[in-house]
Design goal:
By secondary structure, the protein is α/β, with parallel strands linked by helices. It is built from eight helices and ten strands. It folds into two domains: 149 residues, 3-Layer(aba) Sandwich (Rossmann fold); 83 residues, P-loop containing nucleotide triphosphate hydrolases (Rossmann fold, 3-Layer(aba) Sandwich), CATH 3.40.50.300. Helix 7 packs across helix 8.
Length: 278
C-alpha cells in the first residue's frame, strides 16, 4: 500500500509551513480562572511534540482545543492555515480509554471512519475532503493493511472485551490511521498499560509517525515518554499559562536512544524545567 498519507495543498498559493498556529489563546472554564491567557505557540509540519506538566496545568485542555472539541475564550487556533471552529476530519485523536465500540469487532472498529465517510461522502465535515469514494474492496484493503501493520490482523473478528489493553490501543490506532490523518493528537494513550506493552507501543508510534510523515502532539505526565516521543517538548506550568517553555530534543543518530547518555541528560533537563514552572 503506497502513499500512507497523500500530499495536501493549502488554500493559499504559498506553502503553509506550520501545521498548528495558536495566537493569543485565552481559555477558562465557567467560573474558573484562565487556564491559558494570551498564549501563543506553533508546531511546524512534520514535527513531533510532547506536552507535559503537572496535573491541572491544561495539557488535555490544550489538546481538546486543537482538536476542536473546546472553543477558545479568546484568540485564534489554526490548523493548516484554517481556523478551528469544529472537529477537523483530517485530525486523528487517540484517547487513553481507546473509545472502541464494544458491540463491534476489531475490523468494524477499524473501519468506522470509512463507514462514516461512505455515508456522508468526503464533505470536509464528517470525513476528509477530496478524493473519490472508495469501493468496498479498497476499504477492506486499507483496513487489512493497518491491522496487519499493527500486528492485530489475527484479532479482526474479536470484540474489545476479548482484547488486552495493548491490543485495544492498537485497534484504536488502526482506526485513526485508516483515515490517513495529517495531524495526530494523543492524550496519554499508553499510561494505563504495563511497562513492556507501553514501550512496544511507544516504539511503534515513532515508526508509524516517520512512515506517514505525521505531525504529532502527545500529552503525557511521564518525563521519559515525553523525551522519547517528542523531538520538541512543551512544558506547561500552573495556570494561567502565558509563555510556552520549549525544550528542543534532537535525538541524533543514537541507535538505542532510551539507553543513551543523551536521553538521560535530556530527562534531567526536562525534570529541571518542570521544577522551575511548578
Amino acid at each position: 500500500m503506497s502513499g500512507l498519507v497523500g500530499a495536501r495543498r493549502g488554500a493559499a498559493s504559498r506553502p503553509i509551513l506550520n501545521m498548528i498556529e495558536i495566537e493569543n489563546l485565552t481559555f477558562a472554564y465557567p467560573n474558573q480562572p484562565p487556564v491559558f491567557e494570551h498564549f501563543s505557540w506553533h508546531a511546524a509540519r512534520g514535527e513531533a511534540w510532547a506536552v507535559i506538566g503537572p496535573s491541572g496545568c491544561g495539557k488535555t485542555t490544550l489538546l481538546y482545543l486543537i482538536a476542536g472539541l473546546r472553543a477558545p475564550t479568546g484568540g485564534m487556533i489554526r490548523i493548516h492555515g484554517a481556523p478551528v471552529t469544529r472537529p477537523r476530519p483530517e485530525t486523528g485523536l487517540i484517547l487513553q480509554d481507546h473509545g472502541l465500540l464494544p458491540w463491534a469487532t476489531v475490523e468494524k472498529n477499524a473501519r468506522l471512519g470509512l463507514t462514516i465517510r461512505s455515508f456522508y461522502g468526503p464533505d470536509g465535515k464528517h470525513a476528509p475532503r477530496g478524493g473519490a469514494r472508495l469501493s468496498k474492496a479498497q476499504e477492506a484493503e486499507r483496513v487489512a493493511y493497518w491491522l496487519r501493520r499493527l500486528g492485530i490482523d489475527a484479532l479482526a473478528g474479536k470484540y474489545p472485551s476479548q482484547l488486552s489493553g495493548g491490543q485495544r490501543q492498537r485497534a484504536a490506532i488502526a482506526r485513526t490511521l485508516v483515515m490517513q490523518p495529517d495531524l495526530l493528537l494523543m492524550d496519554e494513550p499508553f499510561s494505563a498499560l504495563d511497562v513492556t506493552t507501553r514501550t512496544d507501543l511507544q516504539n511503534l508510534t515513532v515508526e508509524l509517525r516517520g512512515e506517514a510523515n505525521l505531525t504529532s502532539v502527545i500529552v503525557t505526565h511521564n518525563i521519559e515518554e515525553a523525551v522519547f516521543l517528542g523531538t520538541k517538548i512543551l512544558a506547561l506550568g500552573l495556570p494561567p499559562n502565558r509563555n510556552p517553555q520549549i525544550i528542543h530534543n534532537f535525538r541524533g543518530k543514537a541507535v538505542d536512544y532510551r539507553n543513551s547518555l543523551q536521553f538521560s541528560a535530556k530527562c534531567d533537563e526536562l525534570r529541571a524545567a518542570l521544577e522551575a514552572v511548578t
